[in-house]
Amino acid sequence: MHELRTFLIVAARHLNAPLRSALAVEPIGEINPYIRRSAATFTTFDCLAFGAVYLYGELPLETELFEEWIGDFAWGTGGPMRYDELAHILIPRYFEQETFCVSEGEGPNNKVETRNEWKHEQDIAGLSELLKQASIDHSLTEWALEIKRF
Q1: Which residues pair with 139 in a beta bridge?
Q2: What percentage of the chain exceeds 70 in pLDDT?
Q3: Which residue from 45, 46, 40 is spatially nearest to 7, judged by alpha carbons?
Q4: Pairing of strands 69-70, 111-121
Q5: What is the Rg, in whole angstroms, of the alpha carbon atoms belonging to the chain?
Q6: Which of 60, 112, 115, 127 could form a disulfide with 72 if both were Cys (CB 3.0 to 4.6 A apart)?
């Protein structure tokens, strides 16, 4: 099994929900119940070669981690991506999430606006311990957990 696949499986299992979540600002309208499971930033070797572009999104679900490739649309940047394409993965301790929605309401002012900002904390220290047990090389700082392959 590819070491990055093992890393992503352990991360998907451990970071399946934020450690803590709090509204960052007073919400407008109803509170949106959708809370992101996790957050990570990553890049591929091709992205490094052409402008050092980093992509951001939730970690792939375990069911999206196949033997040789990642099937998640966001991580696969529109299609499957092989593990050996990944150059750098950062999992931040904190991430923010903003949800905004305008929907049809009743009456003369028929627009209903909903806006929430959340601040989430991820248990990267706990993830680091699990990665040590799995003998996965990584770095941990107070800000992020990192795997760098260059």
Answers
A1: 146
A2: 78
A3: 40
A4: unpaired
A5: 18
A6: 60
For the segment 27-78, what is each residue's pLDDT rounded down to a tens digit?
A: 666 666 667 778 999 999 998 998 888 988 889 888 989 999 998 756 666 6
Q: Tell whether the model's pLDDT for residue 123 goes beyond 90.
A: yes
Q: Distance between CA 110 and CA 88 in Å, rounded?
A: 46
Place of tokens 């930033």: 41
Q: Where are the domains of the chain?
A: 3-148
Contacts of 37 (CB under 8 A, 6+ apart): 15, 16, 17, 18, 58, 59
SS3 call for 90? strand
Cα 136 to Cα 119: distance, rounded to the nearest angstrom: 28
Token pair in block for residue 6: 């093992």
d(C-alpha 110, C-alpha 112), whole Å: 6
113 within 8 A of 28, measured Cβ to Cβ: yes
Q: Does residue 34 contact residue 16 with C-beta atoms inside 8 Å?
A: no
